[in-house]
UniProtKB/TrEMBL annotation:
Protein name: Class I SAM-dependent methyltransferase
Keywords: Methyltransferase, Transferase
Domain of life from the UniProt record: Bacteria
GO biological process: methylation
Amino acid sequence: MNTSILSQNIQDFITQNSGAPITKLALQKNPFPETDWILILNQIEAKSKAKDKLPTWFATENIIYPSKISVEQTSSEKTAAYKASLISGESLIDLTGGFGVDDYYFSKKFKNIAHCEINEDLSAIVKHNFEQLKVGNCVCYADDSANVLKESNQKWDWIYIDPSRRNDAKGKVFMLKDCLPNVQESLDFYFEKTDSILIKTAPLLDISAGLSELKFVKNIHIIALENEVKELLFEIHNHYQGEITIKTANILKQKTETFEFVLGDSVFPFYHLPQKYVYEPNSAIMKSGGFDEVSVVFDIHKLHKHSHLYTSDELIDFPGRTFEIQKVIPYSKNEMKTELANQQANLTTRNFPDTVENIRKKWKIKNGGNLYCFFTTDKNDNKIVLICRKIT
C-alpha cells in the first residue's frame, strides 16, 4: 500500500479532479513527481466510480482505493446495508473480504467481524479505510481464509462468503464448484466453525443449480437495485431440513419492494383476458420464478401460463411496473398498420414469437414516448398487443 497519496496536496488534487476524464488528465504532466502518476490517476478514477455506489467512502477523507475494477466488482452500499439487515449476532467471519463494503455494514450488526483477504495490499487498504470510517470492531487478516479458520478455535455465529468465479469457467451458466473457494467442497469444514453460512453468488447463477450443490438451505434472497438483479444469496443452517423460502427485494430510491414465497408449494393461479390494468413484476421476482405465487398472493390474473404479465380491474400496489390498458388489439397486419405503424412507443415482448428489434423494424416504430406496448399471448393462445400508459 503506497501511503504517499495520503499527502494533503495529493488528496486535494484527487478530490478536485474526481469525475474528470482520465484520458485528458493522463496527458498532463504529473504535478507530484515524487508519487507515481498512474497511481494518482487510478485513485481519481476509482473515487469517481465510488461517488454513487459508495457515497460513505466518497465523502470520507483519506480513503485509499484499490483498482477501479475492485470498486466496480464490490457490493454497493445499498445492497450491503440490506444484506446486513438479514442476519445478526456476536461474531461473523468474511472469508472473501475484498474492499470491505459488506463488512462495514455487518460491523453495525455484529460485535466482532473478521475480514479475510489473501491480497496483502488490499487487506492493508481495508484496514486503513476502516480506521478512517471509525470501524473499531473488525480485524483484518491478510491470509487465505482457510488458514485463518484452521488456526482459530473460535466458533462463529456466521460465515459470509462471496466466492469468485474462476477465470477458466466458460459460458453464462456456471456452478459453485467453478468458483474459489469451492464452497461445496469445503462445506463440512465450514460447519465445524459455524452453524450458519451466508453465500453470495453472481445473479446469473441458476437457483436450481445452486440448490443442487448445497445442503441445509433455509432461505434464498434475491436482491435487485433499481430493478437490476445484483445478488443471489443462499442462507444455510447446519442440519436444517425444512421448507425453503425465496425472498426478493428490489431496492428503489423511495422504497424497497419485497415479495416472498415457499419454494415448491402447490399454488393455482388465476387466468383472465386483459382487464383494466396490467402488471409487470420487478426483476427480482422474475429471477425467483414465483410467477404463479404472484397471482395468488396479490389476487390478480395471469394473462397466460408463460407470459408472466398480470391483470386486474381494480388498481393494486404491485412490486413492479403498473400500466393502464388503453386498447387491446390482435397482432395482425391491419391492426398494426392502423394503431402503431410509424409511431413512437416503448415496446416489451413477453411470451411472443418475435423480438422487439424485429417489431420496430417491421412496423417502423421509434423508441420512447409515453406509449407502452406489450406484445404477448393471452390465455386463449392468441397473439395480442396491449397499448398502455404507465402509472408506476
